[in-house]
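In the current project phase, we have settled on a layout for protein records. One protein thus recorded is set out beneath this paragraph:
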Amino acid sequence: MIEKASVILHWNTDYAEFPRSEFPKVVELSYEPMITAIEDGFIGTICMNLTGHTFEYLTANYPELIDRIKRLVKANVIEMLASGYSHPILPLLPRERVAFQLKDHIALLKKIFGKKPKGIWPPELAVSPSVLSQIKKEGIDWTAVDYEHYQLSQFFGNDVNPFEIREQTLTEFLVEAYWARGISKLWKYLKAMRLLMKANKEQIEPLRRVTINNNETIKAYLSSFSWTNTTQLAVGGFVPFYKNKNLLKLLEKIDTKMLPFYASDIEFFGYRSMGPTPASPKSLIDFLNKLTKKGVRITSPTQIPDEDWPQEPTYLSTGSWAPDKSFRLWTDSEDNTEFLRRADEIYSILRARNWDKKLMKKLEPFLRIMENSDPRGWAPIPERKNEAYSAIAIIFDILDKS
C-alpha cells in the first residue's frame, strides 16, 4: 500500500478554450464546490496553483472565495504554489521577463497569504535548465515536472534526429481517445485503460533531484499523466471500466512511499472532462478521504523530509507536458510565429531602453497578456487570440509615444 499521495490543482481563468462569459459557471461548478468539499472534513494538504490573473478575477468578483482559501492555507489544508504570473511558457521568455513573471507571482502569494511558496507549478510544466536556475534563485525548493518528459530525458537525446524514433507518448494516445467517436472511442478507451494501468505501475517514484548545472540541483516532483487521468476518470464513475472500486484495488497493490495521485487542472472536476461527464469536485475529496481512512496521508512534496529525496541528481532536458513534450504547441502555428516575432521586437526595444522602470510599469499588464500561453496553445478561441493581438498593439502604441 502507498504511504503518502499528493494532489495538485491548477486554476486558470485565462483558459484557452473558455470564453470569459463562462467564468461564473466555472466558479459555480468547479472552484466553489471544490473549496466547499475541502472545508467539509478533508484531512491532509492539497497543493493549489492560481495564476495571477485568476487571483485578480476572483478578488474582484468572488472576494469571499479568496477569504475561504486564505483560511484553509492558514490551517495548512491548502498549500499555494508559485508560477509565472500570467501563465507564460517560461523558457520562451527572455531571462529578464522570466524574473518579472516569477517575482511578481511570488510577491502576490506573499501579499495574500503572508508566506513565500516553497514549490512551483511551472505553466504547462515547461522548463529548461536555465529557467530552473532562475526558479531556484527565487528561493523555490522544488518544482513540478511532467513524468513522461523526465523519462524521455533519461534516454532520448534529440527528437528531430531521424535515427532516434520514440514511441507514442501516453498523452498523445489519450488525446486520440478523447477525440474519437462511436465504437472507435470505446476501443481506444479500452486500450487507453491498459496503457494507463501499465504506466501507473511504472510512475510511482515521483521524488527526484535534477541537474541545473555542474554545481546546482533542484528537487523535482514528477507529475504523472497516467495517475492524473486514471484518478479523474475513476472517481467520477461515469466512464465504463474506470470505477472507484477498481482504483482502490489498484492502489492496494502499489508499494511506494509517495504517489503522484492527481496533478492538473481543477476545471476537470465539475466543469469539463476527459470522459463523457465531468467528475464532481466532491467525488475527488470523498475518494481522498477513503484513502485517508486506509492509512494513506494526503500531503505536499514540501512536507517530505530532505532525506527522502534522492541525493544523486539526474538530467532533465528542456520540455513540457505537451503531448510530444516539446514547445511546438505554442510556437509552430502561423499565429504563434507572429506572436513570437512581435514579442521579440518588443523585447529588443525594451532591452535597448534598459527595461526602464517607469515604462515597464505602464507596459506590465499588457506584457502579461501578450506572454500568456493560452492564446497560443491547445485550442485557443478567437477571443483569447484577439486579447493577445490587442495587447501587442497597445504595447507598440505606448512605445511609439514614449
Observations:
- The chain has a mean pLDDT of 92.
